[in-house]
Amino acid sequence: xxxxxxxxxWPQAHSAGLISEDTEAKITALLTQLSLEEKVGQxxxxxxxxxxxxxxxxxxxxxxxxxxxxxxxxxPDRSAAGxxxxxxHAFNQVAMxxxxxxxxIPIMFGIDAVHGNNNVVGATLFPxxxxxxxANEPELVRRIGAASAQEISAAGxxxxxxxxxxxxxxxxxGRTYESYSEDPSLVAAYAGRMIEGLQGxxxxxxxxxxxxxxxxxxxxxxxGTIDGMDQGNTEVSEKQLIAIHAAGYPPAINAGTHTIMASxxxxxxxxxxxxxxxxxxxxxxxxxxxxFIVGDWNGHAQLPGCTATDCPASFNAGLDMAMAPDSWKGLxxxxxxQARAGVIPMARIDDAVRRILRIKFKSxxxxxxxxxxxxxxLIGAADHRALARxxxxxxxxxxxxxGVLPIKASANILVAGNAADDIGQQSGGWTLSxxxxxxxxxxxxxxQSIFSGVAExxxxxxxxxxFSADGSYAAKPDLAIVVFGEKPYAEGxxxxxxxxxxxxxxxxxxxxKKLKGAGIKVISVFLSGRxxxxxxxxxxxxxxxxxxLPGSEGGGIAxxxxxxxxxxxxxxxxxxLSFSWPKTxxxxxxxxxxxxxxxxxxxxxxxxxxxxxxxxLLGEVPGIDGTPVNxxxxxxxxxxxxxxxxxxxxxxxxxxxxxxxxxEGAMQLSWRSAAGRATIDxxxxxxxxxxxxxxxxxxxxRVDRPASDKVTLAMGWGTVDVxxxxxxxxxxxxxxxxxxxxxxxxxxxxxHVHPAWSLATTGPLTISIANVELTTQAPGGFCPPLN
Length: 787
Fold this sequence. Notes:
Structural class: alpha/beta
Distance between the termini: 53 Å
Radius of gyration: 27 Å
Largest sheet: 7 strands, antiparallel
Number of helices: 20
Number of strands: 29
């Protein structure tokens, strides 16, 4: 039968340090005191954006999370540790109240701390996993886990949704950078070490000594979906599922991981959130996992016959805690009814709650002492930043060097490229927001950009570094460093059609050619969450460094590429590819030991000063049409984005005008007196994922002549009243409207949105539009009330 595992074929493991006679006796005693409602509450997790502490009086939930862009209570999502500590306290104060008919049980507070405590302003941001894989040093990973745990616990948080143990086989997937390697043995070597770093040695770590619960994820096969499609189907044999995708889980279980997160994907057509043969028969029984299984963001809702608020099948399959960020109330009420009716057996309820309570005891949550909490000195601590900088140095992979590296620190150099002085871009996704967008350098008070690190090293050696994003200069430099790469993204938005970098709009290549044409030697520093086809850029570079997504410590790059005043190395390159580098843009499934393996640079490749090598002239035919499928950027910087087009009724005029930041970076739309509509359209787009992920339509605009009649803004069939937004003129503004708002106003399931944007009114209005695009959950979003 498809999608059904055979446990006897799977490796055995054993959860170390989780079960003890004393703890189990405490759990048994506690279970006898709990009402059915309190038991079900332990099995459901809500998001800070959708629940208030006082809700726990009626709905005694066991866990709260703050999703990638969800805020602490009463504060911006980009907040320092203080508001996060206050938020955890507020929920626990209600959960631990002594009141009639209530058994106090502490909540678990979870956060996506995937490269350091990346939701908290000022925290150390370590290189993403793909970079750590290139370092090929398990002990380094353990040290990073320990430092991350200290910064997480110092912010009052006790549970990290990490590490990701995906063995990515198709690099088009938007979560490739969360994987250590395409090679299962390297992932296996890292899994237990990261768990040990976060949690401490089995049975010894707790929140009291600066450790947090880990969550090995995502079980199982998330890195093997067809075409690298997020939340897709992994169509491999059971033998391949075991040998490749399960490789990290036995070491994680043996290291005592407290939790394991179920994956969104399917295996052979069966969704993991409902696959009992894998969740229960393999993971809990064969692999001896004694912690609890948590779901992913409304992942249970994807099972046939389920909704976000109604899914007994997932609990019966072995899910112990459902991540129900905005659906928690309905799921709680339905699950209580189903448990009372026997649809979910009481034995299954008790098993799930026992597992959850076991982790709460083992992680120290029942002990109110929090000695690491409010240790502000640990957030962005100097030794943590030094560790992150060490990780940056060790993760850099030198792909090409025609004698220009290392740089003489006594030289006068130019640093170019938009990414050179952008800490957000060098940090990537899962950085203060889910997709890593919307950040400025001011959001990173303890960090250093790549340019800043280079300038510091050059000054120390008697030279200089000048920054110019566009590569302009007053005096010709001795050489140039160009920093460029992918913009931040996470799953969904990060999925791509091909591995070609900047298909159709090669801005970085144009900058490289400009500098080369002026007779300047060029060193490329490439930021990316995956290997990419960059043959044209390699050809225009005298040296090329794969820097991945290094995080907050941009100075680690200067440590290796800038030598001393005489040009002698201060540090050598030691990073080696943990993902094979493509020869064509079509080699998105390029993994060693596969038939027909033919990379440009193989797994394990990496030059150094000690062992140089040559790269000849490379072919520049990508081998596939890499034009991206655009469904989230409609109008940007004065241009309608392909494949969309702007259409206006005869009653509406349009002229180009300047935006706040760019000449002719906006269009002015004018309605005189008759009814009319302006529409951006071009294709039927599926925004189902984006709607479920709480993304928003973002519009940057200026009212030049206030509206006098009703104005409506539509996406597809969903229409909202924006009259109040357009009644006064106060300069440039940004409006953010959740896609769910359009869905609730007639848009339905948002899987066939057409047109993408439409603005209509019946009377005079003049408005200038600078940007219309989708953004992740961000401050200032609102849903206009129904009139």
